[in-house]
Amino acid sequence: MSRSLVPVLLVVCAFVVVPPLVQRLLRAELPVPELAVYESRYPLNDFAFSDDSGRSLKLADFRGTFVLLNVWASWCQPCREEMTSLDHLAQSAAIHGFKIVPISIDVAGVPTVQYFYKRFGLDNLPIYVDPSKGVMDAFGVIGIPTTILVDPDGREIARMSGGARWDAPESIAHIAEIIGRHSDTRP
User: Fold this and answer.
1) For residues 159 and 49, what is the distance between their CA atoms, to the nearest angstrom?
2) Chain centroid, CA 2 distance in Å
3) Are residues 52 and 113 in contact, defined by beta-carbon separation less than 8 angstroms?
4) Using N-to-C axis directions, what is the helix angle for 77-92 and 169-183, rounded to 10°?
5) What is the pLDDT of residues 4-60, one digit of tens each?
6) Which DSSP letter does residue 28 get?
7) In what order do the strands lie in the sheet with 36-43?
8) pLDDT (tens digit, 9 = 90+) per residue, 81-100?
9) How many C-beta atoms surround the C-beta of residue 50 within 10 A?
10) Cβ-based burial of 176 (10 A; exposed 0-12, middle 13-18, buried ≥19)
11) Cα-atom radius of gyration of the chain, to the nearest Å?
12) Alpha carbon 68 to chain centroid, angstroms
């Protein structure tokens, strides 16, 4: 009887061990972001979200600075993959005069995001949550992750849907170029 169990155990082990290994070996690297830059700036609807202390915030609280607003969730695989690059971008301070505002739409709120940040070693990003998903309605977000570049007057100037490597040198140069182009002009 023990000899007949060996093939069954091998098959069970193969189903448990092989898929994660294949996924790691075949995982494609996230692309460099391709922000769709708008000729005209679009005013954004404001909405309420909160930080990790429970303080209520609005996008208007960030007026006066460029904001890279990222809508994400801990259960979203592309979001998980890109959060590390956003953390590296925040740490590098390669682009002056701009803030990263990652807003989680996790229903469980702050505890889930705190656990996620700890698990992935994200030390440079602030925690913002919107469990009601109002950010999705306010900004017309239909899929996550979605990243929106907002000018100091609270208007959308660029957007990208999907995961990206935000800390890649070409990403940093592209964001800096967009900010530079929109810093001098006020429609």
Assistant:
1) 20
2) 50
3) yes
4) 70
5) 666 666 665 555 555 554 444 444 567 767 777 877 777 888 889 999 999 999 999
6) P
7) 36-43, 155-161, 146-150, 66-72, 98-104, 128-129, 48-51, 56-58
8) 999 999 999 988 667 778 99
9) 17
10) middle
11) 20
12) 9
Tokens 């990206």: give the residue.
Answer: 164
Tokens of 117: 């940040």
Residue type, 171: S
Residue type present at position 114: Q
Dihedral, CA atoms, 34, 39, 45, 49, nearest 10 degrees?
Answer: 30
Structure tokens at 85: 């690059």
Q: Which residue has the tokens 């060996």?
A: 6
Go through the domains of the chain in sequence order and give each one's CATH number: 36-183 (3.40.30.10)
User: Is residue 157 within 8 Å of 150, Cβ to Cβ?
Assistant: yes
User: Any alpha helices (H) in the chain, and if so which ranges?
Assistant: 2-26, 77-92, 110-120, 134-139, 169-183
Tally of residues, the chain: 187
> Which tokens sit at 144?
């996550």
End-to-end CA, the chain: 80
